[in-house]
């Protein structure tokens, strides 16, 4: 039986293969809470993977390690969205046992090449060799080091007009497993802040999807929990949709509870 960390590595490899085939859609979720119990609950919901958002949440390395431990025994792949395209941050996430990384603001080929290099051991890249928890505290280091380069998921975010203009050169970089569209930042750089449904934003997104698929590259997008919009993107050719976050589910669940209490009991919350 594989150890927990080798199991995670091989589940990541399986998800990469699924994206390469492109015949079956993937659903991803979000983790924004540093409480491992929240990730532990989410990891068993049936998502192919969960994106742990260290870019916009309050994670430090100990908190990230605790959340990654919550995936133990599940088939859900933990993917860490790092704060920046920084090899030091990427190294921490991978050494702690992430199955992949999501790297923000990759605007050109040079940034894409740097991202890939930070995720790969030499001679394919320049990741430092000390997997620690990822290698099961050296018990499985040999296996991890042999399989990491061909298994770990590298996702780069396409979330600016600059990245859109440079998309073809980004797609030409070997080692990128998936281009992840960030509608919120993309809409802002297009001059439509907080309007991800604006026709110009939608057209740019559809063009990104088309070009990624033409290049035989997996493409993902961030979406909410409206199933109609999720289906819309899947029908448009998206490989994976990240939909639903811990805090969002808590808010929507409490809103539904408030409405039911008012309807059934007549009590309104402030």
Going by helix content, strand content and strand pairing, the class is: alpha/beta
- What oligomeric arrangement do these chains adopt? single chain
Mean pLDDT: 95
**Helix count, per DSSP?**
12
Kindly, what is the distance between the CA atoms of the first and last residues, rounded to a whole number of angstroms?
Answer: 53 Å
CATH class: Alpha Beta
> Total strand count, please?
8
What name does CATH use for the topology? TIM Barrel
What is the H-and-E element order?
A: HEHEHEHEHHEHHEHHEHEH
> Strands of the biggest beta sheet: in what spatial order?
1-2-3-4-5-6-7-8
List keywords for this structure.
alpha/beta, 270 residues, 8-stranded parallel barrel
Overall description:
The chain is of the alpha/beta class. It has a single domain, classed as Phosphoenolpyruvate-binding domains (TIM Barrel, Alpha-Beta Barrel), CATH 3.20.20. Strands 1-2-3-4-5-6-7-8 form an eight-stranded parallel barrel, surrounded by eight helices. Helix 2 packs parallel to helix 3 and helix 4 packs parallel to helix 5. The longest helix has 20 residues. The mean pLDDT is 95.
Describe, in short, the structure shown.
Helices cover 47% and strands 16% of the residues.
């Amino acid at each position: 039986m594989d150890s927990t960390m080798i199991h995670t590595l091989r589940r990541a490899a399986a998800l990469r293969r699924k994206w390469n085939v492109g015949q079956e859609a993937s659903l991803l979720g979000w983790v924004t809470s540093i409480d491992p119990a929240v990730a532990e609950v989410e990891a068993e919901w049936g998502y192919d993977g969960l994106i742990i958002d260290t870019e916009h949440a309050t994670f430090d390395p100990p908190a990230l390690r605790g959340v990654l431990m919550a995936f133990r025994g599940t088939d859900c792949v933990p993917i860490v969205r790092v704060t920046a395209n920084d090899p030091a941050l990427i190294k921490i996430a991978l050494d702690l046992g992430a199955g992949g990384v999501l790297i923000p603001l990759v605007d050109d080929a040079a940034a894409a090449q740097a991202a890939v290099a930070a995720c790969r051991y030499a001679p394919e890249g320049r990741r430092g060799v000390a997997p620690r928890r990822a290698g099961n505290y050296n018990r499985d280091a040999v296996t991890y080091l042999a399989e990491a380069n061909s298994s770990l998921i590298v996702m780069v975010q396409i979330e600016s007009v600059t990245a859109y203009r440079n998309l073809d050169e980004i797609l030409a970089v070997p080692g990128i497993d998936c281009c992840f569209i960030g509608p919120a930042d993309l809409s802002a750089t297009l001059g439509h802040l907080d309007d991800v449904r604006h026709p110009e934003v939608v057209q740019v997104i559809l063009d990104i999807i088309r070009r990624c698929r033409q290049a035989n590259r997996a493409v993902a997008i961030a979406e909410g929990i409206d199933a109609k919009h999720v289906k819309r993107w899947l029908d448009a050719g998206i490989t994976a949709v990240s939909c639903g976050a811990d805090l969002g589910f808590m808010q929507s669940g409490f809103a539904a509870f408030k409405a039911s209490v008012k309807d059934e009991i007549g009590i309104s919350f402030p």
